Amino acid sequence: MIRTFLKALILVPIAVFLILFAVANRQWTGVSLDPFSSEPPALAVHLPLFLVILLALMLGVIVGGVAAWLGQRRWRRAARRLEAELREARAETEAWKRRAEAEHAAAAPLAPLTYRPPPAA
C-alpha cells in the first residue's frame, strides 16, 4: 500500500510534467544526420520538438544502461567464479562430514562412563 502510494507520488508529477512539456513544444522541426550539407538535406524527418527531445532522452537512458551493464561485466564474472568456488567448498565440506561420521560409526564404542563416589576419608 505504501509502495503504491510512493510510486504514485513520484510518477504522477513526472507524467504531468511530460504532458505540459509536450503541449508547450508542439512546433515541428526537421531532424537530419547530414552535418556537411548547407542545402536542405535529402533525408530528413520532420517531428514535433517534444518528440525529438523525448526520443533523445530515451536513447541516452538506453545507451547509459548498456554502458553500465558492460562496465559491470568484471564484477559479474568474479561473482560467478566465487559462486563456483563456494559450491566446490560446500561439496568438499559435506564429503568430509560424511567421511568423519562413517569413521566415527566404525570406531569401537567407548566404555560407558560410570559415576564413582569419592573414597571416604
Helix content: 55-70%
Mean pLDDT: 89
Annotation field: number of helices? 3
Radius of gyration: 36 Å
Query: What does the overall shape look like?
Result: elongated
Biggest sheet descriptor:
2 strands, antiparallel
How much of the residues is beta strand, in percent? 5-15%
Please write the string of helix (H) and strand (E) elements.
HEEHH
Low-confidence stretches: none
Query: What strand order characterises the main sheet?
Result: 1-2
Structural class: mainly alpha
Number of strands: 2
Distance between the termini: 78 Å
Describe the protein:
- By secondary structure, the protein is mainly alpha-helical.
- The protein has a domain at 70-96.
- It is built from three helices and two strands.
- The chain has helices spanning 2-24, 49-71, 73-106, and strands at residues 28-31, 45-48.
- It has a two-stranded antiparallel sheet.
- The longest helix is centred in the C-terminal third of the chain and has 34 residues, at 73-106.
- The chain is elongated, with a radius of gyration of 36 Å.
